[in-house]
Amino acid sequence: MMDIDGGAGAEFVESTQNFLQWFQSLPGATFQQNIRIEDLRERGAGRGIIATADIEPDTILFTIPRQAILCTTTSDLATKLPSFFTQDASSAASDDGDDSKSQDGWTLLILMLIHEALQGSASRWKPYLDILPRRFDTPMFWPASDLAELQASSVVAKIGKAEADAMIRTRILPIINAHPTAFFPAGTPPLSDADLWALAHRMGSTIMAYAFDLESDAASEKESTPEDDWVEDHAPPIMLGMVPLADLLNADATFNAHINHTPLSLTAVSLCPIPAGTEILNYYGPLPNSELLRRYGYVTPSHARHDVVELPWDLVQSHLHRHLPILTAAQWTAATASVEEPDETFVLERATDEPDATGQITTPATFAGLPEELTDAVKIFLKSVVKAAPAATVVLEDKTVRKTVFLEGVYGALGEREGQYATTLEEDDALLANGARGRREMAVWVRRGEKKLLREAREWVAGQLDEARRAGLSRGREDEQGDEQAAKRRRR
Ligand SMILES: C[S@@+](CC[C@H](N)C(=O)[O-])C[C@H]1O[C@@H](n2cnc3c(N)ncnc32)[C@H](O)[C@@H]1O
């Protein structure tokens, strides 16, 4: 849900027009005649770009000269404070809030954006900065009462507010305060720490939702094609930059345009026929709704195919225990003590195809198996069970029994994990059907998607359990028949 602070209609239209005029005046910029920047605030999507007439595939929709990109090679701040920019800026465009004092691609871009914002009309990106959001609706800015709607989703632990605060405290404010003349134009009073803090948070969120990873010149010599892996906006970092206009494209799990990186420019190209009136959509990657919400502040039903859910190891372990009653308490303690990383979690996801060269996915996403890491962890754990309680060998030496214990443990753990959410899948469906709106609606999509995946995983495990039990029974019958035949032979 986008909260673009563009003011009332006229103000919004004016800033859009100023931006487009500015963009089109840049040497090398192009803007195809059959596209338009549209006000999509009514459906919470801010600005977007739509086709005003039918567009053929492979049409260049717009061209952004590299000089228009705000990044380390174009920012005046890099000239003013070169020592910060000669560090390996490509080393980590991470949002992990590392508490060290060194800069990375992420913090440098925050500093560059703050610097440009403070220059006011002297910034050559002013018309661009004017259309960037002033407020964000990502969970980073939600009060506890809204966060509670995410219930047991693991995304709550990933919001990273404390890490962002630490990053601003150690790597943003000290730089600005130590170099006021580089940041504040002559005659303007420095901002208070509180105002800088808010600005830094805003710019951090802007980068999260708007910045692009820019391929190096060498990598971009080869024009990327849709058949190559899709360039995700947060794929392994090379250089982070703000790319005017390219970042006005909204996105979805299926899409119709792609940004190509070439040495002199970035171009938006249509991937398929785009009928008049259709929104032009980019791709942010195969992200679950929880990540879309965390990074971009929105969710879409079509991203639900990429939903993930985390299953903690301790839950699996406690359910395995129920199926191993043969162990004494001391033996169980010994078995669990020898397993490393009890805090580990396993990520469940569906098997799904990548979008094709036209940005479409035509096959369904299905749950097709448990993560290999989980299977391996259970194998190792059952070995340590046998070591701690040699009597368990009698039970666990049988491969089918081992598999059954594993599946029963996981089945139980999946059920308990689903029970950790305060509402049921059915209640969430009813909330969506009855028109939940805003943050609540987005949170319900996230938690509902996770429950749905847990159910699918449980069904898959139940199917595997049936198979394993049938295999066990038929093996049992074979063994019985073998015993009978042996007895007959002995009687003869
Ligand atoms: C790169 S910007 C796209 C342009 C943005 N709409 C604007 O007005 O500046 C990314 C932001 O656009 C919004 N957005 C992108 N795709 C969307 C979609 N399919 N539905 C709703 N909002 C979307 C989200 O708020 C996201 O954080």
From TrEMBL:
One of its GO terms (biological process) is methylation. GO terms for cellular component: nucleus. Residues 33-285 form the SET domain. InterPro entries: Rubisco_LSMT_subst-bd, Rubisco_LSMT_subst-bd_sf, SET_dom, SET_dom_sf, SETD3_SETD6_MTase, SETD6_SET. Gene3D superfamilies: Rubisco LSMT, substrate-binding domain, set domain protein methyltransferase, domain 1. Residues 470-492 are annotated as: Disordered. It holds the Pfam family Rubis-subs-bind. Residues 470-479 have a biased composition (Basic and acidic residues). CDD domains: SET_SETD6 (cd19178). GO terms for molecular function: protein-lysine N-methyltransferase activity. It comes from the Eukaryota. Keywords: Methyltransferase, S-adenosyl-L-methionine, Transferase. This is SET domain-containing protein. It comes from Lasiosphaeria hispida.
